[in-house]
């Protein structure tokens, strides 16, 4: 059985769309919604929602996605955990595709994320595939055995309580534990990335800072090069991106903000 773990914070309309998309999906599954500091009536609405599948509600007090996901994993009854945020709307066959991916042990299955046309090139998470790296395993559309999740200690909600960093941190530990990362094209979902355009630069800066903290946590240069935060690379980015970012289109502003966040975090720690 799959346990779908959905952290949510004040996005009731998106959450409703997600749950509606899960109605009628084939396969044995439960859904665990972790309402993290919600003040928009999400909890009351969920208590009345007539779900056509097993639905469980947990509440946490605004402690962030990493903590909320860990809390959902603790009570999950499924052998497989499927992490998927409230702004990720699954397409038909999503559950079944993730279930088929776990024939082999220690599999981390990453589904395909699609962006609405208006968010193309914005920096919001999209994985067209089929090339897959360990850092592509995010809380948007990723499943793995509960036993493997527990083996590596789950999400680090201490170092990564805010935005960013918790996903590659978990994925790095999964890689070190011998996990097999597979891309599951059939497990498609639309990443609505709610209000991303209005917050993209702030998110990029926070992500850069979080990834620099991740590099410092493990002191592994492979992390820094993979996530684009190695000090040598940052010097090049900070030197050339202000003049060349227009060549990258909308992505250029995102990359510069990301580099700034990483550079500021690097300077703070020196």
Total strand segments: 8
Oligomer: single chain
Strand order of the largest sheet: 3-2-1-4-7-6-8-5
CATH class of the largest domain: Alpha Beta
Order of helices and strands: EHEHEHEEHEEHHEHHHH
CATH H-level homologous superfamily name of the largest domain:
Spore Coat Polysaccharide Biosynthesis Protein SpsA, Chain A
What percent of residues are in strands? 15-25%
Low-confidence stretches: none
What Rg is obtained from the alpha carbons, in whole angstroms? 18 Å
- Globally, the shape reads globular
The CATH topology of the largest domain is Spore Coat Polysaccharide Biosynthesis Protein SpsA, Chain A
State the secondary-structure class. alpha/beta
For the report, how would you describe the main beta sheet? Answer: 8 strands, mixed
Quick check: average pLDDT?
90
InterPro entries: Galactosyl_T_C (IPR027791), Glyco_trans_2-like (IPR001173), Glycosyltransf_2 (IPR050834), Nucleotide-diphossugar_trans (IPR029044)
GO molecular function: transferase activity
Domain Glycosyltransferase 2-like: 3-113
Transmembrane segments: 222-243
């Amino acid at each position: 059985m799959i346990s779908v773990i959905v952290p949510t914070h004040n996005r009731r309309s998106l959450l409703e769309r997600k749950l509606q998309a899960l109605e009628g999906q084939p396969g044995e599954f439960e859904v665990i919604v972790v309402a993290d500091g919600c003040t928009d009536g999400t909890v009351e609405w969920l208590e009345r929602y007539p779900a056509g599948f097993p639905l469980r509600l947990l509440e946490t007090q605004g402690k962030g996605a990493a903590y909320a996901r860990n809390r959902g994993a603790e009570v999950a009854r499924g052998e497989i955990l499927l992490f998927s945020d409230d702004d990720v709307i699954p397409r038909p066959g999503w559950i079944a595709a993730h279930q088929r991916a776990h024939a082999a042990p220690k599999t981390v299955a990453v589904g395909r994320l699609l962006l609405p046309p208006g968010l193309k090139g914005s920096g919001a998470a999209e994985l067209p595939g089929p090339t897959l790296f360990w850092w592509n395993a995010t809380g948007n559309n990723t499943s793995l055995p509960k036993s493997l999740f527990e083996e590596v200690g789950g999400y680090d909600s201490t170092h990564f309580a805010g935005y960013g960093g918790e996903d590659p941190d978990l994925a790095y530990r999964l890689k070190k534990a011998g996990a097999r990362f597979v891309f599951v094209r059939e497990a498609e979902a639309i990443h609505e990335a709610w209000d991303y355009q209005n917050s993209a630069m702030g998110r990029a800066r926070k992500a850069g800072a979080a990834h620099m903290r991740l590099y410092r946590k493990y002191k592994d240069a492979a992390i820094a090069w993979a996530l684009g935060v190695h000090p040598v690379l940052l010097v090049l980015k900070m030197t050339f991106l202000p003049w060349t970012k227009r060549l990258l289109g909308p992505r250029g502003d995102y990359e510069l903000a990301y580099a700034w966040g990483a550079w500021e975090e690097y300077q703070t720690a020196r």
